[in-house]
Write a structure and sequence with these properties.
Four copies of one chain form a homotetramer. The first copy, chain A, contains nine helices and ten strands. By secondary structure, chain A is an alpha/beta fold. The first copy, chain A, has one domain (about 15-265): Aldolase class I (TIM Barrel). In chain A, the strands form two sheets. The first copy, chain A, has an eight-stranded parallel barrel with strand order 3-4-5-6-7-8-9-10, surrounded by six helices. The first copy, chain A, has a two-stranded antiparallel ribbon with strand order 1-2. Chain A is globular. The model of chain A has no long low-confidence stretch (mean pLDDT about 95). Chains in contact: A-B, A-C, A-D, B-C, B-D, C-D. The interface of B and C includes residues 183 and 215 of B.
Chain lengths: ~270, ~270, ~270, ~270
């Protein structure tokens, strides 16, 4: 590989600032919320709970990349407005996924972090477009992306001038079908070793199984992750999508306590 | 899976008409040309050769999805103009890849078929956008897409009203590193068995090795493929990208002769 | 890689002689029979049919490597005796799988070819043991073996003095779950290009789906295969194991006719 | 799946006793030593160091399953004698790999635990043979084995009467080539959730990169592992095999200290 902006050889580790939250600093950052934004009321009620327990950033999907065109595709721009409004009311920065180059400018009015999902990691037009903004970008790993491809995807954003890139490992596609994906914590350790970007882990998609989320959350932190993105819901069984991997508020509280205990040793 | 437009249960097999070429009919369709459009002169010189030997459709990349942002990204709109102009001069329909929703409308002025590349198979915004046109779409399989995900990607296009969808198997990502990808001809046979869409095979990306292209071309036809997309070049060793998998004109002539011989038995 | 016995640089292509059958010669060799030997009577009845239609070698499993210890494990030595007896009665060479180093010597009394199954490709003790005999060995590819590992497994046998090695591609393990395995015909073409060993293809395990076996059989031959190993049964639906991928005698007849037609062009 | 001995529904979690070490109890068990036994002197010198720093079990390979038949295959029975002798001298239980059914009885005289390597996880003859002993068995996961296949492999041993089975996750084969394997900690969490067997993790093979071993060791413990198997050497750069993933004694000391700190919270 040529000399890259993502490489530690190039410069210091990058810390991404989102309002008063630092991603890549000492404190581990917790991003949580429902998979999809279902309504203003339901998002507000979960956001209040998340704020109360100390979650740092609120997540929620407005544009949902669903396998079938006949599945619920998200509330779209209406969803952007809801999460923006809810974030202000509970005083939490928000993150949401954008999938179309034409929505990037608009998104800047509504979200504090733009998420590039796994399915769009190779969408170089989109990467270049978000690279022209100064908005922090959470770049999920493609489901079969190699370390090199993932880093180059980050480089696409940085080469346009936006250094606020956060990587997110969310599991890769393998032959194993017991779990939805195989969480690849090896790369978390590798990235902290050699590269400049902060990295967080999504144990919800990384396992697909609610009962594995607590252990894999701590495991991710010990592999070096700077934070976690976890799907939570007031009533996980009733979540519109990804119910099987969504945890409840009390389960999230327990994970956050454990993260603090283990973090003492770093 | 719900009842889908791609399913044979829904209706007859689809034949896609591109000028006077039928994809999905009796005759196997050969699409060929360089990986990237390098200049008007070089594309014209290869296009003349391809026309002479009976190739049906001219391919060439104007927008190139490269792993590194520092690699040659294609001639972009200038490339679209070149391939359109060359196609007219040699009287061949042309195909080129589009990666950004904002380029779809423009592309309609220049190309006879829009190619959606492997990296954008999950780019649902782009699929919906091309679904709103009537332009034939060649939809490559994502590098780790399951049959179900691939068919649903086609369904995204068809659900918007564009039935002119051609699938293209181009190899999947596996643990095997000897070949660039693993060409999955199983799915070619499966798709011809149960689904309505024509399917062609790209043995260039499917193997990554020039010396395997002739055998895998015939093998693909026998698995049921309706045609082939093959990277060729007047001087393969000097191709700007993908040189290792690019074949020469005489090699292409030999493959086309073999395809004709074997097709007699279907 | 160091200089290897499997390499064409080392010497001429190897033809393996089994009684009066040549594997690796002009004629494509068809190996067929049931997955498991169920009884003398049932094997004899299918063997007579197979002989009649021109199958070259009779297969049948005596030792069955089953995922669960509670599944039928085969008739074991009794099965060896049955296949040996049936082979003599119908005048067909026979092939059966051996899994234990302690059974190799015994097997020499009963079978004309020893099959090393996918699960034992890395069982180097077994490879060395069969390498000390002169019995032809059919070496299936491990389910996630690279080309290099597979060739070295063959080399283990040849280094002990037994040059009668036949490779068998039977599909690899990938993320795709629609088919049981992904048949990797790329490697068939690659092996014919550079290596000395004959190679046959098993489209039954390679697809896991009976309806894909005919197309993939021809496809394999066109990729360069020297023959096919196909699971067949008088009454496929009633096969004790692998019923879903087993074909009937009339289906096999059709495949053999097609193989002959296509072979005319090589 | 049918009702299995490995399932928690069947009975309590299994603790495997090796001399006075308990695997599956409160204390995390550390297994360490060189990849291959090189000589009596070198093994003794590292064993003394390992004993001094509190390692619980000494590992060392006598029979080495190497990809090439021309690579060093281990000291074989001479190696068994060496590790047995060294174990006694330094008062540490020992573990070594057995690959051939004919070596199982002999191994009982020399080793406290028999390791079944990744390449032999599907070697059902070997599994049955070790199942007939009472020797504790460390069963490594096959390089592309699913959870179900791995558990059934354990079941093969237990069904013969030997309940002393320890699982060992050592990374799976995926498309990612940056690391030697992809360590699948998801399954560690899954196994502790639902199954009875103790499980340890091998971060040396699981990453293939020495610099990732410390973080992945702690990460494995937090995912629920009952211990670690780590390749160490007095002089890692000079190890005969697997040098790239072997750590030094001081590095091992640091890992063991961290394991103790983190274990306080379970």
């Amino acid at each position: 590989m040529e000399k890259l902006l993502v490489d530690k050889v190039y410069g210091e580790s990058i810390k991404v600032k989102v309002k008063d939250i630092i991603i890549g600093g000492k404190e581990k950052v917790i991003i949580s919320g429902p998979c999809a934004i279902e309504s203003y009321e339901s998002l507000l009620s979960i956001a209040k709970e998340l704020k109360k327990i100390g979650v740092h950033i609120l997540r929620g999907g407005a544009y949902k990349p669903r396998t079938s065109p006949y599945s619920f595709q998200g509330l779209e721009e209406e969803g952007l407005k809801i999460i923006s409004q809810v974030g202000k009311e509970v005083d939490l920065p928000v993150i949401t996924e954008i999938m179309d180059t034409r929505d990037v400018e608009k998104a800047g009015n509504y979200t504090d972090i733009i998420q590039i999902g796994s399915r769009n990691m190779y969408n170089y037009s989109l990467l270049k477009e978000v690279g022209k903004t100064k908005i922090p970008i959470l770049l999920k790993r493609g489901m079969s992306a190699t370390l090199e491809e993932w880093l180059y995807a980050a480089e696409y954003i940085m080469a346009e001038g936006n250094q606020n890139v956060i990587l997110c490992e969310r599991g890769i596609r393998t032959f194993e079908t017991y779990t939805r994906n195989t969480l690849d914590l090896n790369l978390v350790a590798a990235i902290k070793e050699k590269y400049r970007l902060p990295i967080i882990v999504d144990p919800s998609h990384g396992t697909g199984l609610r009962e594995l989320v607590p252990k894999m959350s701590i495991s991710a932190i010990c592999a070096g992750a700077d934070g976690l993105e976890i799907e939570s819901h007031i009533n996980p069984e009733k979540a519109i999508s990804d119910a099987r991997q969504t945890i409840s508020i009390p389960q999230l509280v327990k994970i956050m306590e454990d993260v603090k205990k283990f973090t003492m040793y770093f």
